[in-house]
């Protein structure tokens, strides 16, 4: 992960220490202008990248031009979902990008990218514990020392001039009625709004967040490898010994084989179920418990196939593990099929979309575990690739308009449109928000007399126009919906004009 180190920009330590407090104040002012009391939107994207620029300016290390461009590009790419819409997934991905840039500018990025998840974990652990430390008190003690590198040294030079200037101004107001009238005409009520409790609290939260990024630290993890290694022989001879692992894998494969055969027969093959059990019940009851089963199986595999353990040394145990992982992957695919069949009957919801994504991630994780065993990689390699799959999934989900997709799916598969399934749940589409307006229009084209859906559509339009149209709250998703509504209004006006002329 190293880039070229030439040419470089160098900063002196003294100027850098003075630059951070000034930049912190500037970023707090920008956060107040962009974020405070504003709907989230483009402002989050702008502030994220402004923080990135600030981190690069205050870097304690010499940064080359390629490295600077890499950090800026990385931040821009990970914050793109915030341009689409301000979702929690986009915010999480952009915060991940800021954390990586913070580590990079401080020289804490590991040389091997597979160690990056552990580095981020240490950064988050240290950040969560820092407010409970006494660093602020020690910083206050240092600031009282006569040092040219402290903020106090620069501020105390203004005490005498400002104090005497205030006194002279008061005397001049007493002696000159023009000055007194001018001072009395100044309206200071805006200060009550500027220094409101919520605003000051917002400043403090932003300052705390920025201070963690400007001064990143990694938590030192305790090393107990010798103690754990000493306990491994006893552990291997007991719960996770070769005999225990062999028996466990034989029993587990037999149990999973029963479930796999049942799914192949009734779920994939379409065989008739016994009396009293419907396909809907069969598909619905198995989706979520099977995911928990797969997660427990993954945890067992990681313990059983630890480095230099009995499972790593025995070809028979490795073969049984491979078979069990394959059955777990089949289990995940069956869970996805169960969910798909259930959605076809009972429509789509955000929770069911999340469940489908989660099932896919579990299947990918199991496949990566299998690769880790076959390629004899470390657990750090496994964690790195699993984390990358999770980040890619969050990034893609942040760019997709899931409420609009769900609304279109439910309208297309409703009984009124497709002739099968369940009736359209218009109230749920209303809960999805204005993103479901195009889907409702499609529904109204086929059933224009449905007054309930038309009323919900009008309420969603009003809700959309009530959304703040300030430039700081702009998103591409809202812009697309604005363009769609304007187009539909023009078509409606043209239709009424033709009807009137006719």
From TrEMBL:
Pfam families from the UniProt entry: DUF4153
Transmembrane segments: 21-36, 42-58, 65-82, 88-109, 155-175, 195-214, 249-268, 288-305, 317-337, 357-375, 382-406
Keywords on record: Membrane, Transmembrane, Transmembrane helix
Entry keyword annotation includes Transmembrane helix: yes
InterPro entries per the UniProt record, alphabetical: DUF4153
Protein name in the entry: DUF4173 domain-containing protein
Organism, as annotated: Rhizobium lusitanum
């Amino acid at each position: 992960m190293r880039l070229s180190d030439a040419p470089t920009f160098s900063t002196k330590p003294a100027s850098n220490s003075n630059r951070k407090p000034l930049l912190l104040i500037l970023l707090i002012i920008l956060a107040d202008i962009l974020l405070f009391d504003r709907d989230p939107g483009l402002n989050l994207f702008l502030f994220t990248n402004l923080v990135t620029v600030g981190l690069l300016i205050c870097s304690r290390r010499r940064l080359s031009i390629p490295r600077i461009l890499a950090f800026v590009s990385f931040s821009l790419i990970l914050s793109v979902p915030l341009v689409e819409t301000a979702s929690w997934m986009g915010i999480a991905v952009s915060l991940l990008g800021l954390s990586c840039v913070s580590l990079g500018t401080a020289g804490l990025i590991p040389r091997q990218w597979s160690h990056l998840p552990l580095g981020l974990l240490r950064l988050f652990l240290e950040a969560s514990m820092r407010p409970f430390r006494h660093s602020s008190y020690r910083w206050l003690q240092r600031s009282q020392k006569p040092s040219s590198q402290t903020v106090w040294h620069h501020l105390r030079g203004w005490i005498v001039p400002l104090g005497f200037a205030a006194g002279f101004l008061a005397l001049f107001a007493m002696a000159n009625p023009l000055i007194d009238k001018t001072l009395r005409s100044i309206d200071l009520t805006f200060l009550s709004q500027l220094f409101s409790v919520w605003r000051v609290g917002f400043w403090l939260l932003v300052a705390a967040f920025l201070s963690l990024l400007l001064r990143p630290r990694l938590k030192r993890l305790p090393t107990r490898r010798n103690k754990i290694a000493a306990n491994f022989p006893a552990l291997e001879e007991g719960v996770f010994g070769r005999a225990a692992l062999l028996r466990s894998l034989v029993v587990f494969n037999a149990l999973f084989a029963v479930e796999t055969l049942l799914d192949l027969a009734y779920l994939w093959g379409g065989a008739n179920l016994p009396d009293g059990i419907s396909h809907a019940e069969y598909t619905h009851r198995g989706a979520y418990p099977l995911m928990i089963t797969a997660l427990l199986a993954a945890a067992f595999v990681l313990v059983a196939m630890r480095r230099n353990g009995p499972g790593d040394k025995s070809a028979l145990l490795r073969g049984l593990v491979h078979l069990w992982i394959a059955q777990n992957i089949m289990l995940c695919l069956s869970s996805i099929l169960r969910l798909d069949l259930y959605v076809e009957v009972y429509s789509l919801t955000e929770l069911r979309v999340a469940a489908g994504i989660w099932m896919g991630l579990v299947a990918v994780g199991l496949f990566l575990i299998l690769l880790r065993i076959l390629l004899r990689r470390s657990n750090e390699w496994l964690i790195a690739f699993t984390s990358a799959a999770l980040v890619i999934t969050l990034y893609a989900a942040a760019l997709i308009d899931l409420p609009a997709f769900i609304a279109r799916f439910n309208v297309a598969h409703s009984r009124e449109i497709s002739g099968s399934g369940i009736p359209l749940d218009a109230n749920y589409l209303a809960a999805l928000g204005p993103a479901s307006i195009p889907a409702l229009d499609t529904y109204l084209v086929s059933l224009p007399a449905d007054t309930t859906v038309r009323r919900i559509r009008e309420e969603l339009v009003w809700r959309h126009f009530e959304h703040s149209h300030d430039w700081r709250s702009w998103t591409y998703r809202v812009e697309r919906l604005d363009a769609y509504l304007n187009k539909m209004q023009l078509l409606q006006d043209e239709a009424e004009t033709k009807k009137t002329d006719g």
